[in-house]
Design brief:
The complex is a heterodimer of chains A (113) and B (113).
Chain A (H helix, E strand, L loop, with lengths): L4 E3 L2 E4 L5 E6 L6 E8 L3 E9 L2 E5 L6 E5 L5 E5 L8 E8 L8 E2 L3 E5 L1
Parallel strand pairs in A: 2-11
Antiparallel strand pairs in A: 1-3, 3-8, 4-5, 4-9, 5-6, 7-8, 9-10, 9-11
Chain B lengths: L9 E5 L4 E6 L7 E7 L6 E7 L4 E3 L3 E6 L4 E6 L8 E8 L7 E3 L3 E6 L1
Parallel strand pairs in B: 1-10
Antiparallel strand pairs in B: 2-7, 3-4, 3-8, 5-6, 6-7, 8-9, 8-10
Chain lengths: 113, 113
C-alpha cells in the first residue's frame, strides 16, 4: 500500500511569508500528526488531527496551524515565517488507537531566508 | 519542547557485532513505545514497538527491552550491518494525549566494515 506522502519535499521562503504543507496519510488511517525536526530541538510534536478535529496540540505559537479534510488529508500552515522555523516538517499517520505504529512521510524541508 | 537533541551520542560497532542502543523515557504513565530509524534525508522508519504490559519483544534481528521500574528502553540489533547505520530514536506515547509521541534525542549508530 502507498505510504505517507508529503508535498512539497523542499521549500524556500522569505521571512514574513506564510507557507502551507500537505500530507496524505496511508489509506484508511484517520489520525495525522505533525512534527518539527531541528538539529537543536530534535523531534517535537506540533499537533494531531483525527476525523477533521484537532485532538492534541504541542507547545508552538499560534502561527502554526493545521487542518484535516474529510478524506483524512491534512495541511499545516505557518504564518509570518521566522528564520527559526527552518526545519524538517514530518507528518505521521496512524490507524485508530495507533497501536500499529505511526508511519512517517519523508518530510518537507523548509528553509526560511 | 519535550524533545531536546543538542548533541547526539554515537555508537560505533564493527560489522557483524551486536548493537545495543539505550533510551531513558520520561513518563511512567506512557503506555506504548516505538523505536525508529532515520537515515539522512528520510523520515523516521518504524522498527519495532512494545506495549507497557510487556518487557520484551523480538523482531527480525531486533529486540526491544522495556524496564518500567527505571523507565528504560533498549534496542538490540543482532549481527549489525552497514545498512543499519542511521540515527535511532525511541518514542513514548502517553495515551491520555491521544497519538502524541514524545521522542528521545536520538543515537547515531555507525557500523564499521
Amino acid at each position: 500500500k502507498a505510504g505517507v506522502t508529503q508535498t512539497p519535499r523542499y521549500l524556500i521562503k522569505t521571512r514574513g511569508q506564510q507557507v502551507t504543507l500537505s500530507c496524505s496519510p496511508i489509506s484508511g488511517h484517520r489520525s495525522v500528526s505533525w512534527y518539527q525536526q531541528t538539529p537543536g530541538q530534535g523531534l517535537q510534536f506540533l499537533f494531531e488531527y483525527f476525523s477533521e478535529t484537532q485532538r492534541n496540540k504541542g507547545n508552538f505559537p499560534g502561527r502554526f496551524s493545521g487542518r484535516q479534510f474529510s478524506n483524512s488529508r491534512s495541511e499545516m500552515n505557518v504564518s509570518t515565517l521566522e528564520l527559526g522555523d527552518s526545519a524538517l516538517y514530518l507528518c505521521a499517520s496512524s490507524s485508530v488507537g495507533g497501536n500499529g505504529g505511526y508511519t512517517f512521510g519523508s518530510g518537507t524541508r523548509l528553509t526560511v531566508v | 519542547g519535550e524533545s531536546v537533541g543538542l548533541h547526539l551520542p554515537t555508537l560505533s560497532v564493527q560489522e557483524g557485532d551486536n548493537s545495543i542502543i539505550n533510551c531513558a523515557y520520561s513518563n511512567s504513565a506512557s503506555d506504548y513505545f516505538i523505536w525508529y530509524k532515520q537515515e539522512s534525508g528520510k523520515g523516521p522508519q518504524f522498527i519495532i514497538d512494545i506495549r507497557s504490559n510487556m518487557d520484551k519483544r523480538q523482531g527480525q534481528r531486533v529486540t526491544v527491552l522495556l524496564n518500567k521500574t527505571v523507565k528504560h528502553l533498549s534496542l538490540q540489533i543482532a549481527a549489525t550491518q552497514p545498512g543499519d547505520s542511521a540515527v535511532y530514536f525511541c518514542a513514548e506515547r502517553l495515551q491520555e494525549y491521544g497519538n502524541k509521541l514524545v521522542f528521545g534525542a536520538g543515537t547515531i549508530l555507525r557500523v564499521k566494515s
